[in-house]
Automatic annotation (TrEMBL):
This is ATP-dependent 6-phosphofructokinase. Substrate binds at residues 125-127, 162, 169-171, 222, 243, 249-252. Belongs to the phosphofructokinase type A (PFKA) family. ATP-dependent PFK group I subfamily. Prokaryotic clade 'B1' sub-subfamily. GO terms for molecular function: 6-phosphofructokinase activity; AMP binding; ATP binding; fructose-6-phosphate binding; identical protein binding; metal ion binding; monosaccharide binding. It comes from Clostridium sulfidigenes. Its main location: cytoplasm.
Amino acid sequence: MKKIAVLTSGGDSPAMNAAIRAVVRIGIENEVQVFGVHRGFNGLINGEIFEMDRHSVSDIIQRGGTILRTARSEEFRTPEGRQKALNVIKVLKIDGIIVIGGDGSFRGAKELSDLGIPTVGIPGTIDNDLPYTDYTVGFDTALNTAIDAINKIRDTSSSHERVSVIEVMGRNCGDLALFSGIAGGAEQVIVPEKKFTIEDICENIFKGKRNGKLHNIIILAEGVGGAQKLAKSIEEITGIETRATVLGYIQRGGSPSAFDRILASRMGSKAVKVLLEGKTARLIGIKANKIIDIDIKEALDLKSCFNEELYKLSVDLSN
């Protein structure tokens, strides 16, 4: 394998740049030419490809976002779009592709592999919604961003003796809400994986008041949605002033944490080595702190497994 390309696709996440840096430098270390693809699969279709060297990835490990930029490609979903991408790959004599992204990006990677292009994926998403890996690149940074916001909101919530509903990202996966709820000392965590009623929420709020709590922090996963609506319902039922905060895209930006930088570097290195071993249709992950690679179809077919033990801990700690 003499030439490989790397692209970022779908939503951006902190430490994507750290993964790109590792791919480029480990590739060059193994005497492989490394090419960057601008704007994900769209860039692959349109030939937005350029050779990278060690200098190309200098001073990027601390930067959020992705220097390769990213986009969602409807055209790549079509056979015609994939054929265009394949033609570009063949003309440039690219021997393998590394895709950094989430579930949708990996499905694109599988399509490339099915067309005969050796492909490896690195999980870059703050949602932590890929069951085959313990952590995705960017999750830890987003978690720390959420905790910082929770800490600040608690201060003003205590001053006014309010209820605060804080909505975090994560799509239909409750990990970001669950982890930030525990680490942020929230009174309640509401996730898509667990049923809840407004009556139960309000009962817990009254219980906290009776126990002398000055505030009540509720973490809401965006997969449940409706922070403003929930806050309004709580205020109407309890009579307690309730405010909603949607953290939104601040969770996707910012300088990546040390954990994410190291994780991305380990995964980027592993991705290059997997390609050099002649493997294809593989996804890189981490299990029990060991970097692994797994068949892409097997990984995408895995069902989500909610951490019941951690959820129970969040409930026990809030009582």
